Amino acid sequence: MLTVSLRHALPGFGLDVQFEAPPGVTVLFGRSGTGKTTVIQAVAGLLRPDQGRVALDSELLFDTTQRHWLPPHKRRMGYVFQEGRLFPHLTVRQNLAFGQWFAPRDAKRESLDRVVELLGIGPLLQRRPGLLSGGEKQRVALGRALLSAPRMILADEPLSALDEARKAEILPYFERLRDEIGIPMLYVSHSAAEVARLATTVVVLQDGKVQRQGTAAEVLGDTAVMPAGVRAAGALLEARVASHHNDGLTELDAGGVLLFLPQIAKAVGSVVRVRISAHEVILSRQPPEGLSALNILPGTIEHVRTGGGPGAMVSLQTPAGRVLARVTRRSAQALGLEAGVECFAVVKTVSIAPEDIGGGG
Amino acid sequence: MNAEAAWLGPEEWQAVMLSLRVSLWATLAALPLAVFVAYALARWQFPGKQLLNSLVHLPLILPPVVTGYLLLMVFGTKGPVGGALQQIGIVFAFRWTGAALAAGIMAFPLMVRAIRLSVEAVDPKLEQAAATLGASRALCFATVTLPMILPGLIAGTVLGFAKAMGEFGATITFVSSIPGQTQTLPSAIYTFLQVPGGESAALRLTLVSIAIALIALLLSELLARRVADRAGGR
Q1: What is the pLDDT of residues A209-256, one digit of tens each?
Q2: Candidates A99, A101, A130; nearest CB to B232
Q3: Would you identify the CATH topology of the domain B9-231?
Q4: Using CA atoms, how far apart are residues A79 and B133, in angstroms rounded to an integer?
Q5: Fewest beta carbons less than 10 Å away: which of A75, A79, A271, B140?
Q6: Per residue in A251-287, pLDDT tens?
């Protein structure tokens, strides 16, 4: 468990955060410029905060009151940078070996073969970083960090420099790290989709403060917390794969409600997380009939939040979990949507993007 | 040996060998210090940085004769440093070691400039990455920074070597031009030109100078290309 407590003056605002990162993946979630990178750099020892204390399990990494400062090379934190930072003068194999050279002998190590297999970078081993694509670079960077026998992986927006297709290519590798190697991770992101896929715990940062901490489903379903903006809002449902149909659909069981998704490559019985974007949800007071949409979730409205704009965010409790719907204020009034009202959430199957479906964890 | 000896007179041959020895030692001795100073100037902020920078560049802008005279005052047998070193048996004045000292000091700024540029071209973020992977500062320098500045290091070394080979003013002022002791190639050429009938010897030494310079340049080009291919990430 990582315990973090920091104070640091940044241009324009002060950073003042306290949080704990339990085992699993803890995502530091927030807009850019809220101090996320400062926090992760302080944990790695690349930045000296004005005040604070960071401990990993029982070991103190630094404590300004005790004038204790462990230099970065003694912290054994595997850092995955936004831009990869592979060593250009070394081949991929040598880059991977670089981490191994300095790993302590008695540390629990992953074998090169296992990491290469896990990340699918076998064909790249003899190449030099200058000839790799962005996605390949990040996979090698992840492998290099893993092979340094780290006690924890720190990832600073590792996908933000990649296009959508590359992101979809890399995300599963982070899931495998979480599920197969089980190494604790602190992951900085401003993307709700990444939180939905990876997070065990979410710490939301806003203006240098911790605004909320909780599980991915709690935080993403909370309309008071929307660091990525209302456009990116969406709730997270956990479901079990019930069956695969031969017309290209996968049927999920979410708390007794059946959901249809475009086919996913998960075995029947495995648990998946599905993020339902709030603006893809339609609400209806009557059970809808004659609709092309396949997914209909009955539920009760918890609350309706409106702001200055034309939109309203409706939070609905369903047997599958909390669902968020973004509708216009006009529709909310016309349908009489308010807390306690029963209604139906309608979700088109094809509106659920593949990058919003991940393994459970 | 006999073929060269027939072509070059013994005195000329002596000057060539002495020049090579002086320049080699001057460059080798100056290199580690030049790397350290170049790294410090490129990466660290410290009080007196501008002063150090000016001091390093001084031999480049001072007349060489002035540098030689200053060396004579400081490192001469009666000078403050030269006198002290004499007590422990190290003498610079009128020895080949003095010629190497003068050549090293004159070559130093050129080496520092070339190496500093290449250090500045190395992204400090790569050094951070090496630190997170467990490399201490020294190991990080040896495994990341040094291999990446190698092209600049080679260029600086060759430049320094060429400067040391050609150094004349400071050398002749500090250690004079004693055949077999301190008479380097340029001093020998100059001396031959001062005596009647010395033109042919001067011409032969000139050709040797050109040959050495070209070979050094060629070698450094070859080396730098091989290293640059590697450092370029291909």
Answers
A1: 998 898 888 888 777 776 666 677 888 888 899 999 998 889 999 888
A2: A130
A3: MetI-like fold (1.10.3720)
A4: 8
A5: A271
A6: 999 888 888 888 888 888 888 888 888 888 999 988 8
| A170 and A248 both lie in a single domain | no
User: Residue A265 and residue A54: Cα distance in Å, rounded?
Assistant: 40
- Identify the residue among B126, B128, B132 best suited for mutation to test binding to A, counting A beta carbons within 10 A and taking the highest: B132
Point out the domain boundary residue: A228, A246, A266: A228
Q: How far is A265 from chain B (nearest CA, A)?
A: 35
Domain count, chain A: 2
Asked if residue A310 and residue A196 are part of one domain, the reply reads no
Burial of residue B140, with CB atoms counted within 10 A of its CB: 0-12 exposed, 13-18 middle, 19 or more buried: buried
- Give yes or no: residues A144 and A159 share one domain: yes
Q: Which of A198, A228, A258 is the last residue of a domain?
A: A228
Other C-beta atoms within 10 Å of A240: how many? 15
| B233 to A130: CB separation less than 8 angstroms, yes or no | yes
Do the beta carbons of residue B156 and residue B111 sit within 8 Å?
A: yes
Q: What is the pLDDT of residue A41?
A: 94
To probe the interface with B, which of A37, A75, A85 has the most B CB atoms within 10 Å? A85
Going by their DSSP bridges, the two strands A201-206 and A59-63 should be labelled as unpaired
- Its ipTM equals 0.81
pLDDT of residue B232: 55
CATH of the domain at A248: 2.40.50.100
The pTM assigned to this predicted structure is 0.81
Chain B interface with A: residues with Cβ < 8 Å: 123, 125-126, 128-137, 139-140, 143-144, 147-148, 230-234
Of A76, A89, A144, the CB nearest to B230: A89
Residue A202 has pLDDT above 90, yes or no: yes
CB atoms within 10 A of CB A301: 19
pLDDT of B103 strictly over 80: yes
CA distance, residue A75 to nearest chain B CA (Å): 8
For residue A85, give the nearest of B125, B135, B140 by CB distance.
B125
Domain encompassing residue A277: 234-359
Task: Judge whether A344 and A256 are in contact, CB under 8 Å.
Answer: no
